[in-house]
Design brief:
It comes from Amphiprion ocellaris (Clown anemonefish). The protein has 262 residues and is an alpha+beta fold. The protein has a single domain, classed as Immunoglobulin-like, CATH 2.60.40.3120. It has 4 helices and 11 strands; from the N terminus they run αβββββββααββββα. Strands 1-2-5-11-7-8 form a 6-stranded antiparallel β-sheet, with no helix packed on it. Strands 3-4-6-10-9 form a 5-stranded mixed β-sheet, with no helix packed on it. The termini are far apart.
C-alpha cells in the first residue's frame, strides 16, 4: 500500500497535478494591479495591471518577484484539473522601454513545442494590423548579477540566477537574455498578432515550483498607452466558431447540415 501511494505521488508531481496551491485557482484575474511590496498611494506607470476576464482568457494568479520579473499561474482545464496549458491575458499601465520576464510556472505538459521553436503570440491595441515594431525596443535586460542583488529577499527567484544556482537553465540561454531584444517575427495567422522571437522563450523544469514545467519569456514594452495581449498561440474563441458556422448555414449548401449533439 505504501509503495502504491509513493508511486501515485510521484506520478502527480510528474504531471503537475498535486492538490492544493495554484490548483485551487477559481477565477481569472480582473484588472489586477501588481505593485512592489510596500507600495502605497496612487499606482505609478510600470505597476503592471493584468486582466484575463474576457472570452478565452486564462490567468489565475500573478506573483511579484522583482520589478522586472513576475510568476504567472494559469487555471486548469474545466473538465480536467490535471491539465494546465492554455494562457491568454492582457497587460497595461506599462512604462515605455520597461523590460520584463514572465514565468508561466505551472504548466502540466512534460513535452512542449516551445522546446522546438514555438513561441507565444502578442498583439497591442494601437496596432490592429501586423507591425514589425511590435514588442520590442532594442534594449538590454539587466545583468544576472544585478538581478540577484535586487532580489536577495525573494526565495522563490529562479530565473537567470547562474548555472550553479539553477541547473535547469543552460548558460547559453542565460547569455542570450543579455543580447538586445529583437522584433517579433514570423507569419501572421491573425491580424495584429505576432510570435515572440524564439530566442527569448525558454521551457524548463523548475525545482522551485514542485518540479512543474515553466515557460519564461522576455519582453520590452514600447508604448505606454497600449494594452498588450499575450497568448499560448492564436486564440480561436467559441464566438468566432459560432460566427463561422452561421456564415456556412446562410449559404444553404446542399451538403451541409448542422445538428445539436447531446
Amino acid at each position: 500500500m505504501e509503495r502504491k501511494m509513493e508511486e501515485n505521488a510521484a506520478r502527480d508531481v510528474e504531471t503537475g497535478s498535486e492538490a492544493g496551491g495554484e490548483d485551487a485557482l477559481v477565477g481569472n484575474v480582473n484588472k489586477l494591479m501588481v505593485s512592489p511590496p510596500g507600495s502605497t498611494g496612487v499606482p505609478r506607470k510600470g505597476h503592471l495591471v493584468f486582466d484575463a476576464c474576457f472570452e478565452s482568457g486564462n490567468l489565475g494568479r500573478v506573483d511579484y518577484i522583482s520589478e522586472f520579473e513576475f510568476d504567472l499561474f494559469i487555471r486548469p482545464d474545466t473538465c480536467n484539473p490535471r491539465f494546465r496549458v492554455w494562457f491568454n491575458f492582457t497587460v497595461e499601465n506599462v512604462r515605455e522601454t520597461q523590460r520584463v520576464i514572465f514565468n508561466i510556472v505551472n504548466f502540466s505538459k512534460t513535452k512542449s513545442l516551445y522546446r522546438d521553436g514555438m513561441s507565444p503570440v502578442v498583439k497591442s491595441t494601437s496596432r490592429p494590423k501586423c507591425d514589425s515594431s511590435l514588442s520590442l525596443a532594442a534594449s538590454q535586460l539587466p545583468r544576472p548579477d544585478q538581478q540577484l542583488a535586487a532580489r536577495d529577499s525573494h526565495s522563490s527567484s529562479h530565473f537567470i540566477t547562474g548555472p550553479t544556482e539553477f541547473k535547469g537553465l543552460s548558460e547559453t540561454k542565460q547569455r542570450s537574455l543579455l543580447t538586445p531584444l529583437t522584433p517579433a517575427h514570423g507569419r501572421v495567422a491573425q491580424p495584429g498578432r505576432q510570435r515572440l522571437p524564439a530566442k527569448n522563450v525558454y521551457y524548463y523544469r523548475c525545482p522551485d515550483h514542485r518540479r512543474n514545467y515553466v515557460m519564461s519569456f522576455a519582453f520590452c514594452f514600447d508604448r505606454e498607452d497600449d494594452v498588450y495581449q499575450f497568448a499560448y498561440c492564436y486564440p480561436y474563441t467559441y464566438s468566432r466558431l459560432q460566427h463561422y458556422l452561421a456564415s456556412l448555414e446562410r449559404r444553404n449548401l446542399p451538403y451541409l447540415q448542422r445538428e445539436q449533439l447531446g
